[in-house]
Amino acid sequence: MALMTVLVMIDGFDPEYVDSSPMSNLRQLAKQGFMTEAKAMMPTVTNVNNVSLVTASYPEAHGITSNYWRNREDGKEYYMESGEFILAESMFQRATKQGARSLLVTAKDKLRKLLGEGTTLSVSSEQPPQWVVDGVGEPPPIYSIEVNEWVIDAGRYILSQEHYDLVYLTTTDYAMHTYAPEEPESARHIELLDAAIGRLMDSLPDVQLLVTADHGMSSKGRMIHLPGELASRGIQAQAVPIIKDLYTVHHSNLGGCIYLYLQESDKEKALEVLRGIDGIDEALPREEAAKKFHLMSGRIGDLMVLGAPDVVFGDPQEVTMPPTLRSHGSLHEERVPIIGYGSGFDGFEFKENKDLGRFVFERVLASSPVR
User: Which of 122, 126, 177, 311 is the most buried (most CB within 10 A)?
Assistant: First the structure.
């Protein structure tokens, strides 16, 4: 690895945020390199897309099909926040095999736990080592617009102390869930993030940089309770939120895609009912959904349901629909930006966000030995 390779995953960085912000540093990097739009993985949630990127593979191979999972075999439900759920090799594990040093810095500690296996060092803003706090300062709260600046600055500080060949910095999307692109708080968040990336690049004289997002973000105005809709037609079903994680302030566990579990004998009738409900874009049986979206069929529901742009799925007896909810999970949050700076990109196509990982496997880790 002749160059340090730095990947930045900006959680929830919808192209609308790019269009609404000056982003002076990122635009300058793109001007010297490139900027394009690509697709995220489905469902468009954090865990699915981060794991797809670091393994350069689809969920059908790595096995992370949601943030939250109901295991058919034992009937239990799990937060998919541990490396034990990942079934494919990550770029960190490959780097370690090749004698390279890798660094992961993340806002959410769940991603440190999920992605950290094989890294030389993994750090989160929620559980930072004291020496990083001494160098960067106390991390802001996870529910703040300042925390992502801390993540980038922490990466910069760590790189000033130790050498790493492969760096992955991943943020949180609290700001995107909370503020629309045109709101002043959103502009401030992007300004802080952009400035931190500028400082990072100024500190690294010889580097390849790639920036993308795990998913976009949409304004949501309608909540549909699918088990209730089906029960009124005599069909019993259990809904498992794909977006569900421990960061409920972000999204109240309300997303635009959901898995349904039900009796095999009810499946065809349920599909007919679901496809007639206003606000549902698609309702797919398990094998069809797995094939269409490259999902591991054993780790998804009997049905996969996708909402219209303004729709989320949830139970009104469990959660109140926030008045200004912004969320993701559906095909309407599939578009993401990719920005690249540095050398070595000639002839390489970036069509999906996981192609950043593919670039690492095919161009970075497959090239020259580690210095």
Answer: 311
Matching residue, tokens 């998913």: 215
CB 52 within 8 A of CB 59: yes
Mind giving me the DSSP string for 154-166? HHHHHHHHS--SE
Q: Contact, 135 vs 157, CB < 8 A?
A: yes
CB atoms within 10 A of CB 141: 11
Torsions phi, psi for 313 (to 5 deg): -115, 130
Q: Pairing state of beta strands 207-212 and 335-341?
A: antiparallel
Strand 121-124 and strand 311-313: the pairing is: unpaired
Domains of the chain: 4-216+334-364 (3.40.720.10), 218-327 (3.30.1360.110)
> What torsion do the CA atoms of 183, 186, 192, 195 make, to the nearest 10 degrees?
-80
**Alpha carbons 356 and 61: distance in angstroms, whole number:** 17
Within 13 Å and on the Cβ side, how many CA atoms surround 4? 21
**Tens digit of pLDDT per residue, the chain (371 long)?**
568 999 999 999 999 999 999 999 999 999 999 999 999 999 999 999 999 999 999 999 999 999 999 998 888 999 989 999 999 999 999 999 999 999 999 999 999 999 999 999 999 999 999 999 999 999 999 999 999 999 999 999 999 999 999 999 999 999 999 999 999 999 999 999 999 999 999 999 899 999 999 999 999 999 999 999 999 999 999 999 998 887 876 778 999 999 999 999 999 999 999 999 999 999 999 999 999 999 999 999 999 999 999 999 999 999 999 899 999 999 999 999 999 999 999 999 999 999 999 999 999 998 544 44
